[in-house]
DNA sequence: TATTGTTATACTCTATAACTATA
DNA sequence: TATAGTTATAGAGTATAACAATA
């Protein structure tokens, strides 16, 4: 009937994360994917902070770079952003001089997005950080496993 | 120098997602992980809507079920939630009668979380939906590949 | 009338600061 | 003084509604 022994059966408050049963979450792909994404995003902000790039702007720059003239609507559906939310980002990128909007001559409702030289330089600098950043995030896996993971993700998703 | 032919070199506005170069994003694990997580979360809301479970509450229930008496602070750091944000959810779950808070006798600052019978019933019903839901989300992969993906995610993350 | 882009706005999720009570 | 929990609040991300210009 002793009470103040902080060692014996004191499971409740002293229950540390080490001793918790997490097996259910470990078997839950959705939860593990969330953790993985958090890790990648936190790491991204550290690695690319100096350039002022975010995961969203990095993806936007990359798609415009590889597809000059891409319209905002395609960009939004591709990146899984709602058009109004993308527009807000595009406004900032344009007023900062990283991208340029051209009205399409064929359909004057449509907008064609392009990188300015300043924007092209920024994404080029970002691209140089990409490989070491990915390696760091995936460090616990062998190179073959890293390729397998990326391959499985690509096959899982209809892109 | 022709102009109005909407077929020939009309890459800009007619550029559909089918013809876009997405290879850069496909080689970016962080982006693919984001897409995967979005897919799992959207699917979750569809599948578990009838039970009123969200990814967050599902995880909370599962951890309390497997670790009765777990304190909010451990739960928060485990699920990567800030304590104040978790507290708000716990308040709703308690006032809805799904969980119960006990003050620890050993340390009266500490709180021990438990499921009520009503909460235990809810997570038990949710658990029955879990396997078919995961199978659906991972359908493009073989069972061996599904196991590989989960294994790689677990090895990537320090849980 | 339908589509593209845009603005305005609401809502959810997440982050920070400060307070209470115990230790 | 430090810690666990809580409250209040601010910020970022994401959602819907409505409008202008063009088709």
From TrEMBL, chains A, B:
Per the record, the GO terms for biological process are: response to stress
Is Protein biosynthesis given among the entry's keywords? no
Gene3D superfamilies, alphabetized: Winged helix-like DNA-binding domain superfamily/Winged helix DNA-binding domain
Q: Name one Pfam family in it.
A: MarR
Question: In the record, what terms sit under GO molecular function?
Answer: DNA binding; DNA-binding transcription factor activity
**Which PROSITE patterns does this one have?**
HTH_MARR_1 (PS01117), HTH_MARR_2 (PS50995)
Q: Could you tell me which residue ranges the HTH marR-type domain spans?
A: 15-158
Indicate whether Transcription appears among the record's keywords.
yes
Which keywords has UniProt assigned to this entry?
DNA-binding, Transcription, Transcription regulation
Q: PANTHER family attached here?
A: MARR FAMILY REGULATORY PROTEIN, TRANSCRIPTIONAL REGULATOR, MARR FAMILY
Name-wise, this protein is DNA-binding MarR family transcriptional regulator
**What species is given as this protein's source?**
Bradyrhizobium huanghuaihaiense
């Amino acid at each position: 009937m002793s009470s103040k022994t902080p060692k014996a059966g004191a499971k409740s408050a002293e229950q540390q994360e080490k001793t918790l049963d997490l097996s259910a979450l470990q078997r839950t792909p959705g939860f593990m994917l969330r953790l993985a994404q958090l890790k990648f995003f936190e790491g991204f902000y550290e690695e690319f902070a100096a350039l002022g790039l975010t995961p969203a702007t990095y993806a936007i720059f990359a798609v415009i770079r590889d597809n000059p003239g891409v319209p905002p609507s395609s960009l939004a559906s591709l990146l899984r952003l709602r058009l109004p939310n993308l527009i807000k980002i595009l406004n900032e990128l344009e007023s900062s001089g990283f991208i340029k909007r051209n009205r399409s001559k064929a359909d004057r409702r449509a907008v064609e997005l392009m990188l300015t030289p300043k924007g092209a330089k920024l994404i080029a600098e970002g691209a140089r950080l990409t490989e070491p950043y990915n390696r760091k995030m995936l460090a616990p896996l062998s190179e073959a496993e890293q390729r397998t993971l990326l391959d499985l993700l690509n096959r899982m998703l209809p892109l």
